[in-house]
Amino acid sequence: MAGLGFAGSGQPPPEDTRRPRSLAETAYDAIEQMIISRRLAPGAMVSEGELGAELGLGRTPVREALARLKTIGFVEVHPRRGVLVTQVDIIKHLELLEVRRPLDETVARCAIARGTEEDMARLLDRVTGLRNAAQARDREAYFQHKRALHEGLVGAAYNPTLTGTMTPLHAQSRRFWYTYEPTASFVDCAGIHADILSGLAARDEAAALAGIGALFDFLDRMTRRALDRRPLV
Question: What would the DSSP string read from start to end of the chain?
Fold first, then answer.
C-alpha cells in the first residue's frame, strides 16, 4: 500500500513507558495517528493485510486495533470489502464538547487533589512545549504536545475509569482539530491551556475551572466557525 507514509512521517504518538506495549496497542497508536493526520484520509478504503504490511505487523494485532477504532467512530469494517475511514463530523464534535466539558472539570479536580508535585512539574513542561510548537505554527508538533499534555492531565487524576473514558474522547477531539483548527489559533489555545495549568499547579480549583470554561467557550466558537469552511488539511 504505497503512500501511507507512516514510517518517515515524524514522531509517533507518545507512549506509556511504564509497561511494554502490546502489538495491538502499537497497531492502534499507529493507525489512529494515520487517521488523525489524514495520511489515511476520510473515505479511504484499506485492508487489514495492507495495514499490517505497512506497519510490519500481523493481521491479529491490526484486527484488534481496528475493532477499537471502530468503537470510537474512526473506521467502518465492511466484510470482503475492507476498512473504510469515516468522515469528520462537525455536529458530532459539538456534542462531544458538551460531554467533555464536565469531564475535564472532573479531571482538574482530581488532579488538584491527587497529583504530585512531580506531576505538576511535568505538566508545566508539557504546556511549555505546546506553546513553543504553537509559536512555530508546527501542526504536527502542536498536536503531539497537546496529546502528551492531555495524557499527563488524565494521568495526574489517578482515576483509571476516568482515563478509560477520556482517552477515546481526546482521540476524537484530536482528529477534529487536526482537520479544522487554523494555525492562527494555536497561540491563543495554548495560552488558555497554560492558564489552566497555572491554576492546577497552584492547587487553585477556581482558577483551573475558569480556564476550562474559557477553553470550551473558545473551542465551541471555533467548531461553529468550521461549519462555514472546508477542512484545513
Answer: -TT---TTSSPPPP--TTSPPPHHHHHHHHHHHHHHTTSS-TT-EE-HHHHHHHHT--HHHHHHHHHHHHHTTSEEEETTTEEEEPPP-HHHHHHHHHHHHHHHHHHHHHHHHH--HHHHHHHHHHHHHHHHHHHHT-HHHHHHHHHHHHHHHHHHH--HHHHHHHHHHHHHHHHHHHHH--GGGHHHHHHHHHHHHHHHHTT-HHHHHHHHHHHHHHHHHHHHHHTTS----
CATH entry, 23-85, from 3.40.190.10, 3.80.10.10, 3.40.50.1980, 1.10.10.10:
1.10.10.10
| pLDDT tens track, the chain, 233 positions | 444 544 333 333 444 445 678 999 999 999 999 999 999 999 999 999 999 999 999 999 999 999 999 999 999 999 888 999 999 999 999 999 999 999 999 999 999 999 999 999 999 999 999 999 999 999 999 999 999 999 999 999 999 999 999 999 999 999 999 999 999 999 999 999 999 999 999 999 999 999 999 999 999 999 999 887 778 77
Which pTM value belongs to this model? Answer: 0.86
Task: Output the CATH code of domain 90-226.
Answer: 1.20.120.530
